Amino acid sequence: MTIHRRTILATAYATLAATTLPRKPRAETLAPLSRGLGPVSPPQDPPDGVFVTADGATHHLSDFKGRGMVVNMWATWCAPCVAEMPSLQTLSKALAPKDIAVLPLSSDRGGADAVRAWYNTHGITALPVLLDPRGALARAFSARGIPTSVIINTSGKIVARLEGAADWSAPDAQALIQKLAAS
DSSP secondary structure string, the chain? Predict the structure, then answer.
């Protein structure tokens, strides 16, 4: 049997094409927050689930009652999550003085070390390492996928929800979150 050069090249090209990983989305390709964020009407009580900090301490969402919150369910292996994390960091820096907490709950099974390593690699310095390793809070929030984010106001009610990634860093997004968190 004779193998022709074209056959070898075609096979090699097909193998390369099949094994090439898709590119990660870039932050500049993220949709504006206002495009995907939907109101929750009437506002609902959030589940009082438990999450874990990097040092292993457990906390409840109710520990933050009285503060506005952006609860983001994500993972280091999720390409849209990876794309939006820098903008969540920007949001956190902008809204921390206004007593609005950004709580990124990672579902990574590698625990705090995996998230910390990912933060270091990607220059994330202004977000806490928070874990939801079994996805219990994500299920309690009825997240159909990640990233999923919910906005909780100072009265402790879910007032908005977003499924998918968005640009949280734009000034209009920050103003919208501030308004929703105070409602």
Answer: -PPPHHHHHHHHHHHHHHHPPPPPPPGGGSPBHHHH-EEEEEEEPPP--EEEETTS-EEEGGGGTTSEEEEEEE-TT-HHHHHHHHHHHHHHHHHGGGTEEEEEEE--TTHHHHHHHHHHHHT--SS--EE-TT-HHHHHTT-SSSSEEEEE-TTS-EEEEEES--B--SHHHHHHHHHHHH-
Burial of 132 (0-12, 13-18, 19+ CB in 10 A): buried
User: What is the tens place of the pLDDT at every residue in 24-63?
Assistant: 444 456 777 877 889 999 999 999 889 999 999 999 999 9
Model confidence, pTM: 0.83
